[in-house]
Design goal:
alpha/beta, 2,3-Dihydroxybiphenyl 1,2-Dioxygenase, domain 1, four-stranded mixed sheet, 2 helices
Length: 141
Amino acid sequence: MCRVWPGADPKETRRKMKIIDIAFVCYAVKGLKSGQAFYEGVLGLKPTKTYYMSPDQEQGMVEYDLGGGTFSIGCGAPMFKPGGNNVAVALEVEDFPAAMQRISERRVKVLMEAAETPVCWMALIEDPDGNPIMLHKRKNR
C-alpha cells in the first residue's frame, strides 16, 4: 500500500520524482569540538549555524554555507557513523597551491596526491575521523 502525502494528487503518483538541488552534504564526526577544530582551524571554514544536542557541545550539527551549497558535520545519531569511504565532498579552493601548502604544514593525511586533469587540479585528504575530502580547483575560475 502506498501512502498519499497531503497535497499530493493520487492520480499523479506514477510521476517521476524530480531532484532540484543538493540540500546539504553532512559528514559524521566523532565529536563536534574535534570536528570544528579540523574544519574551522585547518580548512578555515566559518560556521553558519550550530545546533548542540548535548550539554558538553559534542553532539549536534554545524553548518558551513559555501557558495550556493551547505556542508555540515554532525555527531550523535546512532546510525550516522564517521569514517565511511563511499562518499567524498569536493571543496572548491581559491588557491590550490596555497591549500596544499597548508595541508602539508598541518600534517593532514593525504589519500591521493595532487593531480591535474584537463579541467581541474584535485587532491584527496582525510579528516581526523577518516572522512575523505577532495580539495578541488577548476581551471576556468
